[in-house]
Specification:
The chain has four helices and four strands, in the order αβαβαββα. The chain is an alpha+beta fold. It has a single domain, classed as YhbY-like (Translation Initiation Factor IF3, 2-Layer Sandwich). The chain has a four-stranded mixed beta sheet with strand order 1-2-4-3, with helices on both faces. Helix 2 links the parallel strand 1 and strand 2. The longest helix has 15 residues.
Amino acid sequence: MLNLSVSQRLELKGRAHALKPIVIVGNAGLTPAVLDEIERSLKSHDLMKIRVMNDDREVRETMLQEICETLKAGPVQHIGKMLVIYRPLEIAIAKPPKRRQGKAIKTKKQLGSRT
């Protein structure tokens, strides 16, 4: 599970205020299909709201913990039937180009001093 500092959570709560729920957890609860849908959504959204249709607060709290542990996300907020979770997007870092084997690349100064 991702640990967030208080200042990070406050900033994320502000960002999440305008969001609409992306995934809705119905009466069947937290099924593997729902977890797969949340995983797919987290690949394109770093911050998301989840609506849970269960009336029991303790059940919603355990769902939040299970989602965060399973998907390596951080819990931001649990207010009413809304859960807000955060996981940073995975950005692929480009590898530096490989150097050619053989002759070394010459600088402009080295090329200009040829006679």
